[in-house]
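Database export, one record per block. Field names are fixed; values are copied verbatim from the stored entry.
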Amino acid sequence: MPKKPETKKIRVTLVKSPIGYTETQKRTVRALGLRRMHQTVEHPDSPAVRGMITSIIHLLKVEE
């Protein structure tokens, strides 16, 4: 039985509050699954996730 290729994961941590930023940036934070400060979530490395991270990089800490 062949093994599945491992997909890369990206760890994203919210390090700055989205208060005072635009509504679209706040929605992007929520779409990434981040609800509170210093919360970390993992997402598969995909162009869609990379695009969301790029739009709010000033609020995040990203680890590969």
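Remark 1: The mean pLDDT is 94.
Remark 2: The chain has two helices and three strands.
End of record.
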